[in-house]
Write a structure and sequence with these properties.
nine-stranded mixed β-sheet; TIM Barrel; 327 residues; binds iron/sulfur cluster; 10 helices; alpha/beta; globular
Length: 327
């Protein structure tokens, strides 16, 4: 995938207009048992607090109480993770909503998991990324995803709901320079995801983008998204330039999203680390780290999978256009 992005990035930089051509939707991948998604990625969402209010995200509408994971809950999450042995190799610190850098202990937590031998990743909006944090994350993360609308101030404020473009550009520069610095010994790959309202060719031609373009390459890549899902129906309209995907028709096959089990900041275990409508404490909850083991997780995933097949699927999944069939 990173090679594909590398060559796409080269093509986009050479011919900006090509960046406006949408990519074909990823083909579904067959994952083991066709009726129950296989748990491959374990998410530890150490906070559900965010410092942005993106127009394409359900965070501003969330009714959940906000918080940061306690040390005890983090230890419990690690115990459950370790019980999977080598079946899980990848740990994602990206919360369903919230920015991981809001958690003051995020660096030490990622370091801890990395030192246990897992591959680690997180997505951040970069608003709180200091030079110091950037250097450490580059050591302990295998992949860092940066989520931004574009590098123009008005676009940032409109799409992310806060006037933080200047900070983000500065912080992104720290990260890129730290990555390219001789003292950086990590192998982390950085990927910038533009959630764009502007046309990709407009972003590429902007002065801010051009000032970073010479640093893009195999380890620092970018991509564009102008088509967004509806968060189970929570998002009903988007600004001009952003396309809202409506729900697909076939829902009898379980969603691949259920293979992305997430530990929420309060220890709740949820079968989908991607989407919710008003609350993450919904029918996709499958237990709690203090009392649910990996066998109970499996049995809950099977129960939810059967609910898709029988047509009684969870309410959050009914109209979710992020649905991705597991077969
Ligand atoms: S998309 Fe991410 S940065 Fe934006 S409001 Fe949602 S959680 Fe926050
Ligand atoms: S349909 Fe949507 S809410 Fe349901 S598991 Fe898939 S991504 Fe998550």
């Amino acid at each position: 995938m990173s090679n594909t992005l590398y060559y796409l990035n080269k093509l986009w930089l050479r011919f900006p207009a090509l960046a406006n051509v949408p990519l074909p939707r990823k083909l579904p991948v067959l994952l083991g048992n066709p009726t129950t998604p296989v748990l491959k990625t374990f998410s530890i969402a150490t906070t559900n607090i965010c410092n942005a209010k993106c127009v394409f995200c359900a965070y501003p509408k969330s009714l959940d109480s906000k918080g940061v994971m306690s040390d005890v809950t983090f230890e419990n999450a690690l115990e459950l993770l370790k019980s999977y042995g080598s079946d899980i190799t990848y740990v994602d610190f990206t919360p369903t909503v919230g920015d991981p850098l809001i958690d003051p202990k995020i660096v030490e937590r990622v370091e801890r998991v990395k030192k246990l031998g897992y591959k680690t990743t997180l997505t951040t909006n970069c608003i709180l990324l200091t030079a110091e944090v950037a250097k450490k994350l580059l050591l302990y993360c295998d992949e860092i995803y940066i989520s931004i609308p574009s590098l123009t101030r008005d676009d940032y404020a409109q799409v992310y709901g806060v006037d933080k473009q200047l900070d983000v550009f500065e912080n992104l520069s720290y990260l890129i320079f730290a990555k390219l610095s001789r003292s950086n010994t990590g192998n982390c790959k950085i990927h910038i995801r533009f959630r764009n309202k502007l046309k990709p060719s407009e972003i590429i031609r902007s002065l801010t983008f051009q000032s970073l373009a010479c640093y893009f390459g195999k380890d620092i890549t970018f991509s564009f998204t102008s088509s967004f899902d509806n968060w189970g129906g929570a998002i009903v309209a988007l600004p001009k330039g952003m396309k809202l995907r409506t729900k697909g028709s076939t829902r009898k096959i379980p969603c691949k999203g259920m293979g992305h089990v997430s530990v929420l900041h309060d220890g709740t275990l949820r079968a989908c680390g991607c989407r919710f409508i008003m609350s993450q404490h919904d029918s996709l909850v499958i237990g709690h780290v203090t009392r649910t083991d990996k066998f109970a997780v499996r049995s809950e995933l099977e129960r939810l999978s059967r609910s898709f097949v029988s047509g009684e699927r969870p309410a959050t999944c009914k109209d979710c256009s992020f649905y991705d069939p597991a077969t």
